[in-house]
Every structure is written in structure tokens, then in C-alpha cells.
TrEMBL record:
This is DUF6944 family repetitive protein. It comes from the Bacteria. It holds the Pfam family DUF6944. It comes from Rossellomorea oryzaecorticis.
């Protein structure tokens, strides 16, 4: 596979992961008790996201031109993947009944994701890509979604469970929108749409 093909595979794998995680967050609004299948969806979705980000990182390294813009995007892709991996562990903790520990770790994972997306958005804005504005906007929307998820998790930690779950679900759909925007930009850039 070429670097471009690996990036596109990663981008669309990430989109699939955000959708799976958003389905899980939606299920949790109705049933967030230990053992809820929503946690498994969130875990699996974040696993897909981590894999997609890692694929993008590998593909970007193959195409690396030495520019600051691409270096920032590559750093962002790997940082975001580590945030997703953290969210996998957090969801599994919550699934097994360790809610407080899982929620605290989830906030950390969302913060790491948002940081990585910030690097990606900034790098996209500096790049020479034709669809850099759409890519930067997608990364920014996805970062905002991760931040909103973290806010929702903090509401849950403070005893405002119902509101927190709704905010977290809303943030997860922000991540779907942002990841989709970024994947469309990359597909237009490398796939000729």
C-alpha cells in the first residue's frame, strides 16, 4: 500500500470507530450500569479510532517531507491514538464496575485526544494540502467533541449523571462529524473525489 492509501484507510477506520463509540455513548444514556453493552461499544469504537490514527501516522511517515506542518500532524496522529487507547482502558474499567476510576481515566483520554487533534489541526493549517481548510476544520470539530465528552464525564463525576451522559453523547457525535470531515478532506486530497 502507498502512504496515501494507508492514510485513507486510517481516516475511514477512525470514522467507523467514532460511529461505534457514539452508538455506545447513546446506549449509555439509557443504561450506564456496570456491564452495560454501551461500554463495550465505546471500548471497541475507541480501539478502531486508535488503529485508524496509527494507520494515518504510519502513512504520514511514509510521505513525510520534512516540513513542520507534516511533523505536527504526525505527532498529533500518534498522540490522538494514545488518547484513544486510554479511553479503551477507561471504558473497560467502567464495564467492570469501576466507574469512578474509569471516568477519571476517560477524562484524561479525552484530553489527550483533544491535544493530538490540536496538533493535527495546526499542522493541517500550515500544510500545502489543497483541502487543508476542511482538514483543519474537521480536526478542530473532533477536538471540540472530545473536550465536550470530558466535560460530560466531569458532570457525571460531580453527581449530575443524566446531564453528564447526555453531554458525553453529544460530544461523541461531534467526534463523528469532525472525523468524517477530515476523512472527506483526505479522500479529496489523495483519492481524487
Amino acid at each position: 500500500m502507498t502512504g496515501e492509501e494507508i492514510i485513507l484507510s486510517g481516516a475511514w477506520t477512525q470514522v467507523a470507530g467514532t460511529v461505534i463509540a457514539a452508538v455506545g455513548e447513546t446506549l449509555l444514556v439509557k443504561d450506564s450500569g456496570a456491564g452495560s453493552p454501551g461500554y463495550r461499544f465505546v471500548s471497541i469504537g475507541n480501539g478502531f479510532e486508535a488503529s485508524g490514527n496509527s494507520l494515518q501516522g504510519v502513512g504520514s511517515l511514509q510521505l513525510f517531507d520534512g516540513s513542520e506542518a507534516e511533523w505536527l500532524r504526525i505527532i498529533g496522529e500518534w498522540v490522538q491514538a494514545s488518547g484513544n487507547a486510554t479511553n479503551v482502558v477507561a471504558a473497560e474499567l467502567q464495564f467492570s464496575g469501576e466507574e469512578t476510576e474509569g471516568l477519571k481515566l476517560d477524562v484524561v483520554g479525552d484530553s489527550i485526544q483533544a491535544t493530538g487533534l490540536g496538533f493535527e489541526a495546526y499542522g493541517a493549517g500550515l500544510s500545502q494540502l489543497r483541502y487543508k481548510d476542511l482538514l483543519a476544520a474537521g480536526n478542530t470539530v473532533q477536538a471540540l467533541g472530545a473536550i465536550i465528552e470530558g466535560v460530560g464525564e466531569n458532570f457525571i463525576l460531580k453527581g449530575k449523571r443524566e446531564l453528564g451522559l447526555q453531554i458525553t453523547a453529544f460530544g461523541s457525535y461531534g467526534q463523528v462529524a469532525g472525523a468524517t470531515m477530515a476523512a472527506i478532506a483526505l479522500t479529496k486530497e489523495f483519492g481524487g473525489l
